[in-house]
Write a structure and sequence with these properties.
The complex is a heterodimer of chains A (about 450) and B (about 140). Helices cover about 75% and strands about 0% of the residues of chain A. With about 450 residues, chain A is mainly α. Chain A is globular and about 65 Å long. The relative contact order of chain A is 0.10. Chain B is mainly α and about 140 residues long. Chain B is built from five helices and two strands. In chain B, β1 and β2 form a beta hairpin. The longest helix of chain B is centred in the N-terminal third of the chain and has 34 residues. The radius of gyration of chain B is 21 Å and the shape is elongated. In chain B, about 35% of the residues are buried. Classes of the chains: A mainly alpha (about 450), B mainly alpha (about 140). The interface between A and B is large, with 76 and 75 residues.
């Protein structure tokens, strides 16, 4: 690291790891419930586990994004963060709001709108928190010596993400309107502005790891985020097929979401091409694995598996089935979880000065978690397709079908165990790096 | 090959064009189409209270409505048509956990009025025009019991 204030990133990453481990526990509770073992029903009914599982996902990813921004922006802008104390206040308040929300879910304090379960009063605290974060980032950028495309794209992603949180806070009497605006948050986040964040982080990592000229990388960054928005914004239409909106969304959503994999294909080709083109080989092999991994797995999970059920003719049958969970898991893993793990793997040795670049544990963490997640995706896919055929085509009753597909959750849980071992190894490696310290500051521009 | 400026122009131009189309279509959808397709004049106070109960209990954490929610419990858009009002009310008001085929539902023990509100909400949902969702299964299985 080059600036003292970058150290704050470490604590966001640490929070991220903590929340990720909690997310896994709730995932297991749900997996077992699907398999027919919901012994915890009286303490954690399924809807609680589900709300906690998805909200922890959003929180640890956001914590990772914020940490990434606190690490990347000072370095790109060539300036210390304007107010480090305020950044710590922001970190602690973010953790507090999150913890209150998560605990609240166990006591029926929530708002049952998938992914946006945080109750309205806490929403306002989130807004204040995110504004503080953005204020710090923007001021740092403004006062900095340089404004690079990478930092601009990353910041733009964060600003839009904050703005798009607002439509989710409006109350509607009509379920359709409610749903319509809920997707402004959820879809435009994950298939829009979060991809800007991902693209920004990816560009930063590729510049550092491959040593390819910044101009070349940033040019392609524009093309990729351009493709993302062109396909992704109107691609929102694929959530508007069956919620009480006009038929033209079937056509528009179908066409534009069929284009969505292009942005991810672009991202994958871009990362691999830059890696091949790069003359410098950065010693941090773990970070390189995660960086190339995120670009490739996001193409498969978000791009291809999204396409697998996004055409309206298919979606009519798969809408609201486990097929969605199949796509959701690999998409979030590939596109967002892996980019956060990539930036952590890259930043950690620089923050702590311990260069655990290429350890067997780091490698096992990468492969086990990826193989585990791939297996889970297959298990969800098999269960989902079986559900669609039995329930939606043969007309077998929901409960009967669920009994039939219970067995697939055994494999799901086995794969989830592999995945968890991988993540545990990753977290062990995280702990082994120790705490950040000022001695780790270097002047070498290339690390 | 493309220059960086052209790439930036592609990004900004593409975003502005698609976002404008998106806003225009959204306006058209929300101002004229949604009220027609969802019979918004039929959203009474009872329906709204039902929706509030639906949300405050996070029913979407297990069930789905309009195909949105979780995949642990049945889709409820057409639940009144499928099961009838009496059955749904009995489940909602049950004080002991309801567990069809071993899959448990929280015993909410709603009052008669609350159960009515939820039923009215489901009725309204069931009447919305969802472009053919949920599709009627092309075949009818014989082994449903």
């Amino acid at each position: 690291m080059k600036y003292k204030s970058q150290k704050i990133a470490y604590w966001f990453f640490a929070l991220s790891m903590l929340l990720l481990s909690l997310q896994l526990i709730y995932g297991f509770i749900m997996g077992f419930a699907h398999m027919g073992y919901d012994g915890l029903h009286s303490i954690f009914p399924f809807n609680t586990a589900r709300a906690v599982h998805t909200n922890l996902l959003v929180m640890w990813l956001l914590s990772g994004f914020m940490g990434a921004a606190y690490y990347i922006i000072p370095e790109e802008a060539e300036n210390e963060l304007v107010n480090v104390k305020l950044a710590y206040v922001q970190l602690i308040s973010f953790a507090l709001v999150g913890v209150v929300a998560i605990i609240g879910y166990h006591f029926n304090y929530w708002e049952g709108r998938k992914f946006l379960e945080i109750p309205r009063p806490l929403d306002w605290l989130v807004v204040v928190n995110v504004l503080t974060f953005l204020g710090l980032i923007l001021m740092t950028l403004f006062k900095g010596k340089k404004r690079t495309t990478t930092s601009l794209v990353l910041t733009m992603g964060l600003v839009f993400a904050a703005l798009l949180y607002l439509p989710g806070m409006i109350w509607f009497d009509n379920q359709t309107m409610d749903s319509f605006f809920r997707w402004w948050v959820v879809h435009l986040w994950v298939e829009g502005v979060w991809e800007l964040i991902m693209g920004g982080i990816l560009a930063f990592l590729l510049i550092k790891i491959t040593g390819v000229d910044r101009e070349v990388i940033e040019k392609w960054l524009y093309v990729i985020v351009g493709l993302t928005f062109i396909s992704g914004i109107l691609g929102t239409g694929h959530h508007y097929y069956f919620i009480g909106t006009p038929k033209y969304w079937l056509t528009i959503g179908g066409i534009f979401s069929a284009l969505e994999p292009l942005a991810f294909l672009g991202m994958a080709l871009f990362a691999v091409y830059m890696y091949r083109k790069g003359e410098k080989k950065h010693p941090n092999k773990t970070a390189l694995n995660w960086t190339l991994g995120t670009a490739i797995v996001s193409f498969v999970g978000a791009g291809l598996l999204g396409l697998a059920h996004t055409l309206p003719q298919v979606n009519l049958y798969t809408h609201g089935t486990l097929v969605t969970a199949m796509h959701g898991h690999l998409a979030f893993w590939g596109a967002y979880a892996m980019i956060v793990l990539a930036v952590i793997s890259y930043a950690l040795p620089n923050l702590t000065g311990r260069k655990l670049y290429d350890t067997p544990r780091g490698m096992y963490a990468f492969w086990l978690s990826n193989i585990g997640m791939l297996g889970m995706t297959v298990a969800f896919g098999v269960a989902g397709v079986a559900q669609v055929y039995m329930e939606r085509i043969m007309g077998v009753e929901f409960g009967v079908v669920q009994k039939e597909i219970q067995v697939h959750f055994f494999v799901l849980i086995c794969c989830a165990t592999l995945f968890t071992i991988g993540i545990a190894l990753y977290i062990l490696e995280f702990i082994r790096h120790g705490k950040p310290n000022d001695e780790a500051i270097i002047n070498n521009n290339n690390i | 090959m493309l220059s960086k400026n052209q790439a930036r122009l592609f990004f900004i131009g593409g975003t502005i064009v698609t976002f404008s189309i998106f806003l225009g279509l959204s306006w058209h959808t929300l101002s004229t189409e949604v009220p027609k397709k969802t019979n918004s004049q039929k959203i009474t106070k009872t329906v709204v209270s039902g929706k509030a109960l639906w949300e405050s209990n996070n029913c979407m954490g297990c069930h789905s409505i309009f195909g949105e929610g979780a995949y642990y419990a049945p889709e409820l858009t057409k639940v009144i048509e499928r099961r009838g009002e009496g059955f749904v009310k009995a489940v909602l008001m049950s004080k002991t956990p309801w567990s069809p085929r071993g899959r448990k539902m929280v015993a909410y023990g709603f009052s008669e009025e609350e159960a009515n509100n939820l039923v009215e909400f489901f009725k309204w949902c069931g009447e919305a025009d969802l472009n053919g969702f949920p599709a009627k299964p092309p075949y009818k299985a014989e082994s449903n019991h």
